[in-house]
Amino acid sequence: HGFTKSVGLALAFIPVTLNTALAAASAIVAVAFGLSTFDRWLRRRRAHELAWTIAMALFAIAAMSLWWGEARGWSEASFRMFFLFGAVLNVPWLALGTVFLLAGPRA
Prior knowledge:
Elements: H1 2-7, H2 9-12, H3 18-44, H4 47-72, H5 76-88, H6 90-103
Helix pairs in contact: 3-4, 4-5, 4-6
């Protein structure tokens, strides 16, 4: 068939584990939510929405790293990206968005 020849027979039958599917779903949801918060920031220009947009972009990168690691096998680079973007860089932006939301224009 044309499809299996174009992508290669081995690629057409790669099994997908539950962990891989969940990682893919989290990446897709993170991108969708990040686009939603970015749209709200464009319309309202509230600081907390920009901070949360950045946090969602960082989480999406982490989720894509998780997806890659689960689908292709973990490497040092994929684990470092997952940990850096999902825990180290992401958390301060989430906290900053919450501070901006609770403090209002004073922040």
